[in-house]
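To: structure desk
From: M.T.
Subject: fold request, one chain
Message: Could you run this one when you get a chance? Sequence is below, nothing fancy, just the single chain.
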Amino acid sequence: MYIVDSDPTGRTAGQYARATVRRLRLRTLLALGGLAVATALLGRAFGLHDTLFLASEVALLVSMFVISRYVLPLVERRDRGAAGEEHVGGLLEQLSAGGWKVIHDATLGRGNVDHILIGPAGVFTVETKSHPGPVRVARVHGATLSQAQAQRKAIERVTGLEVEPLIVFSRAWVDRPLARRKGVCIVPARMLLGYLGKRADRLSPEEVEQAREAVAGALVEWMEGARRADERRRYHR
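Reply: Done. Structure tokens follow.
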């Protein structure tokens, strides 16, 4: 895990995804545990040949099948996604010595941005994908590109600066690395630092800090609004 002093959310890379994985695992264990306990209690209360006990056994077996067929693959994908965000976040941390600022796992109410990167070469949004590949740039899904463009527009509204959206594949082979689709650059993680390091400087240290403060202020404002809305919902229950 990596913590960035300039991150107003205090979040680490992949924190939201990792928390989702933990919740899914906990709910799966609780569901299986509850069914197992209920089955044992019914067997003790009514006997091993009672209809209720047999029905509970069937329910337990069906639940185990559903979990193994659908839930466990979902948990594995989410776990792989969290690991990908952590890996890319670690790479971005290496830029901090060069005057770059990075904010992880940020939201402005319209989806989650894995990383917002602000530095001498400009402002970037980074959407991490953990697909194992191979990845063909021409076949990157339109919804993925739209997501990256929506993130770009959200940060442009906050900073007033041009933002470049990146889709970074944490471990996949990409057939045309650094190619663009609809204004979105497709980058394998192994080339990310090299790509950013070769970009010409566009922002002064003062402009970098101003952009960081604008993003930080918007994030804090959104989190405060979400907190107040949650308090109102609890009050009116």
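Reply (cont.): The chain has two domains: 15-84, 98-235. Let me know if you need anything else for the meeting.
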